Amino acid sequence: MLNKEQFCKGLTEANLREALERQEFQLYYQPKLELASGTIEGVEALIRWEHPEKGLVSPAEFIPLAEETGLILPIGEWVLRTACKQNKAWQEASIPPMVMAVNLSARQLYQSNLVEKIQLILEETGLSPEYLELEITESIMMNVHHALNILKDLKRIGVQISLDDFGTGYSSLYYLKEFPIDTIKIDQRFVRNCTVDSKDATIVKAIIAMAHQLKIEVIAEGIESKEHLIFLQQNFCNKGQGYLFSKPLPPEELEQRFVEIEQITNREGIPQKVYKQKWLEEALESARQELRDTVRQQQGMIFKFTEQNGKFIHTLCDGELLYRIGLTPEHIIGRELMDFRHVRDAGTKLQYYRRAWEGEEYVTYEGELNGIWYLASLRPIRRGGQVVEVIGSCVDITERKKTEEFIRKSENLSVVGRMAAGFAHEIRNPLTSIKGFVQLLQKEVDKPLYIDTILSEIHRMEDIVGEFLTLAKPQTHQMKEIDVMILLQQVFLLFETQAIMKNIEIIQENSLDFPRIYCDENQIKQVFIHILQNALEAMPDGGTIKVQMLWHDSDSIKFRFVDQGCGISEERMKHIAEPFFSTKEKGTGLGLTISKKIVQEHGGTINIESIVNQGTTVDVILPIKHCVELEH
Ligand code: C2E
Ligand code: MG
Ligand code: MG
Fold first, then answer.
1. Given CA atoms 203, 205, 209, 212 in this order, what sign does their dihedral have?
2. By C-alpha distance, which of 378, 373, 376, 371 is closest to 396?
3. pTM for this one?
4. What is the CA(41)–ligand 1 centre distance, in A?
5. How many whole angstroms separate alpha carbon 492 and alpha carbon 392?
6. What is the crossing angle of helices 272-297 and 226-234, to 10°?
7. Which of 87-96, 125-134, 168-177 has the lowest mean pLDDT?
8. Distance, CA 499 to ligand 3 centroid (Å)?
């Protein structure tokens, strides 16, 4: 007759099938303990084969064959059902609720209806899903995408997942980050020598620290000695499992030994009181770490400083804004303002720092660094009536600053205009005389091409000077009642030749009789000329430009100019009325600004709408009678 070893070597599928039918499998349970309190918080179900002749056969002997033959599916289902039933029975016997861990082979995980099966077993046995934990190994990651979906489904029904034998397979940190794993089990191979082998010690410590950072719990397998326990407690491993506490036991035996097992940690490990203190410290440190992370992730920036030897030294600085400015905490912490800011800047900021340090509440200031504007507010922190540090918080105000700047610029346009007029007046006279001389030269030099170029450039300069002069204020408005029909006719006349040359037809549409409007004839003419000029330039291939006169409301008239030109892109549209923004290659960008200003001064508005390659519509709305006193 075969001995046990020979029997195991020659195991067949039929043997396993038989065992399943004859109900020779059993579950043993090994407790998992909370290392801080020493209480049993769960058990792991481990299968045994109680062979009638060969005795207890270890799973290492038959699980591989079961996996290979697919028999692991019925066996695994039996394990799940039995373990859940057992856990429910314990709960009903008023044993403190524990989590039942069941090992799951890759083959089981990939079976098509695993999630439904587990759900069914939970329903059947009446066990709440949070009391079932599935132990998987890294081998299930052969199809990462598929595995992830299954694990997500399992999490959805409420069971827990732990990663068994961590560190022995293809451990990828990616899994830890992406997979919904509640606990990792450090493999016994690392635990075995962690108190004698410094490399194993380092690995164990690193796994614990990393898992905690990822908010994953850690359990150590194979705790066999007091030294193991103390080492793991010192390194804040959450839970432990191993022969030191108990071997896997049949259920009745575990029940009997329950109380005794729960005393082991207290007896063998770090004394409870000391350990609790250590845990508190660790919890505090991790809370601090969390705070630091939060500070870092917040959009703004937080910093602190204290006075050391008459200097304000930064003791903290973090937040997204800091990185946006192009700095890191290392640039700031342990340093004073002078170390990272320009002397002049540092001097100004120092005054605010001092005010807060002297106890002034709500000191605020704006600053700029590397193109980023921020608003800082300082808050003195007192202890025993004394300011011990100052906390500063900053928010990004770059966008607001830009808007403000733009508004300021537009408001200052009249100032710019006056300045421009000053320059323009100065330039106009020498420009006129240069032009005169060039014209004289033209008669004497035999290279008229250059002269033409010079003259055309001078002409352009004259235009610019002219625009500057218009922009400038000191001008008198000559307001009178005007017949707009006549005014428009005069404008059209100016474009007649140009329109014929470009094959453009200007159509005027107005069926109504319009009253006269009260305006500065020349200025309004200038506005219409500008709009028509733009329309003509936008239509190099010809077409029609429609000019309509409509009632806008009972008090104002709308002049609508519709062209079929190239249009203006959305991006350009945003900037269209900004001073010095031009859609034309050689434009000064002042034309529209001036037109807008003129219309505004008449109490009206200009609206532009444009679609690229379809055309642009410009509406000029003017009141019939604008009674507001016009500024001079
Ligand atoms: P595992 O899931 O890593 O289980 C832990 C193994 O370590 C168990 O061996 C346990 O008895 C053993 N162990 C626990 N504490 C100590 C200790 O302090 N020192 C030492 N040296 N060993 C300790 P076991 O029961 O022989 O199970 C071996 C493996 O067989 C399990 O490894 C698991 O992968 C597999 N297995 C057991 N039951 C099942 C099951 O129901 N289904 C599946 N698919 N696999 C199972
Ligand atoms: Mg396991
Ligand atoms: Mg294991």
1. positive
2. 373
3. 0.58
4. 18
5. 64
6. 30
7. 168-177
8. 89
Task: State the distance from the centre of ligand 1 to the C-alpha of 45, rounded, in angstroms.
Answer: 9
* Stretch 393-403: mean pLDDT: 83
Tell me which residue has its CA closest to atom 11 in ligand 1: 248
Instruction: State the Cα–Cα distance between residues 385 and 362, nearest whole angstrom.
Output: 17
Sheet holding 372-383, edge to edge: 311-318, 301-308, 386-396, 372-383, 363-369
The number of the ligand 1 atom at minimal distance from the alpha carbon of 102 is: 41
- Please provide the average confidence, as pLDDT, over all residues in the chain: 86
C-alpha 435/C-alpha 454 separation (Å) is: 9
pLDDT in tens, 199-244: 999 999 999 999 988 889 999 999 999 999 999 999 999 999 999 9
Judged by average pLDDT, the poorest of 299-313, 503-517, 519-533, 553-567 is 503-517
Question: How many CA atoms does the CB half-sphere of 3 hold within 13 Å?
Answer: 1
Residues with CB under 5 A from ligand 2 (ion): 103, 135, 164
**CB of 79 sitting under 6 A from ligand 1:** yes
Ligand 1 atom with the shortest distance to the CA of 248: 11
- Tell me the mean pLDDT in the region 549-572: 86
Contacts of 173 (CB under 8 A, 6+ apart): 210
The minimum-distance atom of ligand 1 relative to the CA of 241 is 15
595 C-beta closer than 6 A to ligand 1: no
Fill in the DSSP letter of residue 131.
Answer: G
378 lines ligand 1 (CB under 6 A): no
Beta bridge partners of 217: 183
CA of 91 to the centre of ligand 3 (A): 26
Strands 217-220 and 183-186: what pairing? Answer: parallel
Give the model's pLDDT for residue 329.
92
Least confident of 9-23, 415-429, 556-570: 415-429
Q: What dihedral angle (degrees, nearest 10) is formed by the CA atoms of 29, 30, 35, 38?
A: 60
Mean pLDDT of 307-328: 92
- Residue nearest to ligand 1 atom 19, measured at CA: 222
How many A from CA of 48 to the centre of ligand 2?
14
- pLDDT exceeds cutoff 70 at 632: no
For the chain, the straight-line distance linking the first and the last C-alpha, in angstroms and rounded, comes to: 122
Q: What is the pLDDT of residue 287?
A: 76
Rounded Cα–Cα distance for residues 126 and 140 (Å): 28
Query: Which of 81-90, 289-298, 388-397, 511-520: highest mean pLDDT?
Result: 81-90
pLDDT for 471 equals 60
Nearest atom in ligand 1 to 104's CA: 44
**Element holding 330 (H helix, E strand):** helix 329-332
- 74 Cα: distance to centroid of ligand 2 (angstroms): 18
Which of 86, 221, 241, 246 to mutate for ligand 1's pocket (most ligand atoms within 8 Å of CB)? 221
Please name which of 72, 190, 191 lies closest in space to residue 139, comparing C-alpha atoms.
72
Does residue 431 or residue 252 have the better pLDDT?
A: 252
